[in-house]
Amino acid sequence: MLNFEFKNPTKIIFGKGEIQKLNNEIPKDVRVLILYGGGSIKTNGIYEQVLSALEGLQIEEFGGIPANPEYEVLLEALKVIKEKNINYLLAVGGGSVIDGTKFLAAAAMYEGDPWEILKKPVRIFEGMALPFSTVLTLPATGSEMNSGYVISRRGTGEKLSSGGPGLFPQVSVLDPEVVRSIPKKQIANGIADAYSHVLEQYMTYPTSATLQDRFSESIMQTLQEIAPKMLNEDFDYDVAGNFMWCCTMALNGLISKGVPTDWAVHAMGHELTAQFGIDHARTLAIIAPSHYRFNIESKKEKLAQYAERIWGITEGSEEEKAEKGIQKMETFFHSIGIPTRLSEYTTAYEGCAERIEKTFAERNWMLGEYRKLSPQDVKEIVQMSY
Amino acid sequence: MLNFEFKNPTKIIFGKGEIQKLNNEIPKDVRVLILYGGGSIKTNGIYEQVLSALEGLQIEEFGGIPANPEYEVLLEALKVIKEKNINYLLAVGGGSVIDGTKFLAAAAMYEGDPWEILKKPVRIFEGMALPFSTVLTLPATGSEMNSGYVISRRGTGEKLSSGGPGLFPQVSVLDPEVVRSIPKKQIANGIADAYSHVLEQYMTYPTSATLQDRFSESIMQTLQEIAPKMLNEDFDYDVAGNFMWCCTMALNGLISKGVPTDWAVHAMGHELTAQFGIDHARTLAIIAPSHYRFNIESKKEKLAQYAERIWGITEGSEEEKAEKGIQKMETFFHSIGIPTRLSEYTTAYEGCAERIEKTFAERNWMLGEYRKLSPQDVKEIVQMSY
Known about the structure:
By secondary structure, chain A is of the alpha/beta class. The first copy, chain A, has 14 helices and 8 strands. In chain A, helix 6 (about 185-200) packs antiparallel against helix 7 (about 210-230), helix 6 (about 185-200) packs parallel to helix 10 and helix 11 crosses helix 12 (about 320-335).
């Protein structure tokens, strides 16, 4: 097991009707900016619940933060924060709104060009950001209980990530009832996103971290179990609750402790979103199978363990089990309506791999758990996923 | 799934050689009291590592905190805290030392008779206790990452528990190397203790909390897997690391969220320790099988799930699987050298059940996840375990 540090101070308030509890959590003397996305919170009742919970506080609001939160839009919110002397942020949304809020929490206290925070990047320690909380409306990214975020810049086509221990939400309210109004396509994306998060922290090489492995497998098994219920049946509160908690636990830091992590699938996936606007979760399902096939030699022990424990595949050599595990993974993504080939999303895929190779070469990026995956390897992986 | 709140701000520093990192974690301007137990830390090298990490700080020390930390001894430590103006505590030990330290952290700031903190009990919120950290030397209780504690009072034979969100350790250092010098009997106790902690949070009734169930099963499976290696083989760092992390995760709050919890086994077990001085973990192994048999009607779904998932028992009715699960549990305790009948520990057991019945009746205690288990039920359970 590798040495590790773990600290996650976010307070989770989980359950039906719990948004009201924000009233006890946010200090009475702050000026709050409520941040949200496309405005669905104004039709599904969440907005009213938040306003009711904040009664008596000075509040402003800023809506319109898009999926893949855009730097240009966030700069508008930053103006509001400065003009209105905002000193507390409340994200009401999914990963995009929460990620954007984290960037704003840091940017509000940063002297200098805000883009530096992402470009350098600047690690944000405690006291270097405004305090903020979240009301999660779209389970997927885990951003509600971690300190990382990803921001896109339309002008340059960049999608960069940053973070730091000063960017944990103070409180995150997780009410599974919000899942009731989420379109099935977004639920499928959330399942794929959380599942891929686990894969990035699991599909590396064995380090005898038995408990962490079993926790990761627990999340994947639960996601597989709830997926057909979430997508094919009427809303069920308990099923939605498991979905929500799986998404949070998949990326709150716990399962990565003591084990190597990969994240190459995310690095490549981000480029597919930047180039083609494909939903983040879907880009991960496109890249993952090719990534694991390309790296089968170094990942075969964990791939075979995955095949055995998650899918009950006990026959065959380690390599054969590993390949069968990848096939099962593809079948799972297909079962939730997510195609795993780039050509199923766009006809303009030619040249995409070369562009990603060039970008990663410019950034001097070496990827994977060994940091040995070159830009040329990346090109091959992306081509395998066409 | 039940509504829940979860916040655990303790920073875990895990791994070989990490005690030195305390140097960056404890503020430079505090007066530290180092608390420890029987003095084994002075022979196994941990004491030197701690002193080295605290170089430059003002330190005092207090040794001799016994297993089942005694109120009378702790009052002596409280005197030192007050006389020396101590404002930071460092527990270097197992659950007893850490529990004692938590009580002292609260007692140091409590005005009035310190026993009230346990007797009322007084819930300790943030700011109501001295800050403290821990260096874990004996994995078992999980006290290093939770905010509860248990104190015994020799004079009255009482063993009471208390806690509150102000009693999380700031930092806990978990170096699996400490396991190297722990006697096998104590390791067996640690395994039984952690296993029993999971049982108390798992063996209730189903609430569709699929992920929590799987996390609990992950801990029990890992404990079962490492137990023979821990007890029959030479020290192995990775195996010790899994043991240590299992003990922490078994009682850091995570697996109890969204599910009912029982804790009747602990309530009864505490009385066996108070009456006969039997090791805490062993009292749990004595009571658990009888408790589950007595309550098989209300616990049979989870018992059967345990039998199926943990022990692969798929044949028979739900009741039959439940009973087989209990038998497997007993066999597991026996396999780590822990007898499961009170008469294997003492010949003076007659009348013990009646005394516990009387004590619980005086306290008006109703136990179990439904709070329906009467003192008379408790008497029967204890008699079943003779």
